[in-house]
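[PROTEIN RECORD]
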Amino acid sequence: MSRKLKIKVCGMKFTKNRQQVEKLGVDFLGYIFYEPSKRFIGNNPELELFNSKVKKVGVFVDENVFEILGLAKNLGLEYIQLHGKENPKTCRILKNQGLKIIKVFSVNDKSNFSETKQFEKVADYFLFDTKTEIPGGSGKKFNWQILEKYTGHTPFFLSGGISLEDAKSIKEINHPKFTGVDLNSGFEDEPGVKNIEKLKQFIDVLKTSL
């Protein structure tokens, strides 16, 4: 595909690693505020972790909206990624406060994307991830051909088990609303520590024309 895909690297946890990732020219950095996650930033993260010029995404699961707003203000979060059972009203409240919204939907072979319709007016992006029993990344892929069933207007990120080996296949996805990829566990040495060389190779492949 000829258009430039956006790169979101999620699960940033350590300042030095974040600085290395930032130098790769990524578009978004994700910070997880969900305590059960292995990539949870902690209750008192160092503020330097968020001292980045790259767009900052706070990742939440069914969190209190006022808690989200407070963290966004204190840490300079520009995007809020909602990974739970949040409703359109929650998205609208956050959006009315000047935040941009990424709403996550879990996908499997039976998905028809009907649940996305009520979020069309209140989300800036959707993110399609592999359906699992518990919220958060599974490191597993879903069948990307199912994306053909998505006929909505909101652009989407692809997530779920993406690794370096998938770069060429991702370039061949030709959906008009496919806007970017969400990278996490497939590019880690351990939870929260991204492998810079793997990320660089992946991004280089995406940037080269088919």
Notes: The longest strand covers residues 100-107. Residues 6-207 form a domain with the TIM Barrel fold (CATH 3.20.20.70). Residues 196-207 form the longest helix (12 residues). The chain has five helices and ten strands.
